[in-house]
From TrEMBL:
GO terms for biological process: defense response to virus. It comes from the Bacteria. This is CRISPR type III-B/RAMP module-associated protein Cmr5. Keywords: Antiviral defense, Cytoplasm. Pfam families: Cas_Cmr5. Belongs to the CRISPR system Cmr5 family. GO terms for cellular component: cytoplasm. It is found in: Cytoplasm. It comes from Thauera phenylacetica B4P. Gene3D superfamilies: AF1862-like domain. The keyword Lyase does not apply.
Length: 142
């Protein structure tokens, strides 16, 4: 008889929670004084996505986070951090691009979303909203 207990399978909701926790704590560490802006941006993100769409929201964060030369704007790093987090969650799960540690990149993500079938785009939007629920809760608690 095998007495070695196998761990219970990790549910998708547990995976979301772990990813959100890791990314909220990483944002707190890397953004330091700008973490409050990250929290506020994460809280507002679901409404932006529902009112404007996923692609428009990602484009907004990109435009807010980068200057004319494509360099991060001082004081706006939280926009890029949230966009990167969403890309690292949506990319591998919905589009098959990137990983939990490496975003597919803004242009690649946008091109894939532009070419996505309606059900795939809807799933990407749903996943963004679901991961944001966790990120908002954890970021606010830190």
């Amino acid at each position: 008889m095998n007495t070695t207990a196998k761990p219970a399978p990790v549910t998708l909701e547990q995976q979301r929670a772990l990813f959100a926790w890791d990314n909220a704590t990483r944002a707190k560490l890397h953004l330091a004084n700008g973490f409050g802006d990250f929290v506020n941006t994460a809280k507002a993100a679901p409404a932006l996505i529902m009112n404007n769409g996923l692609m428009q929201t990602l484009a907004y964060y990109q435009a807010k986070g980068l200057d004319d030369r494509g360099q991060p704007k001082k004081g706006q790093e939280h926009n890029l951090a949230l966009s990167d987090t969403l890309q690292r969650w949506i990319g591998p799960r919905v589009l098959g691009k990137g990983s939990a540690t490496q975003a597919p990149g803004f242009k690649a993500m946008m091109e894939d979303l532009l070419r996505a079938q309606p059900d795939q785009y809807r799933r990407a939007t749903d996943e963004a909203l679901l991961i944001l629920r966790w990120i908002r809760q954890f970021a606010a608690a830190l």
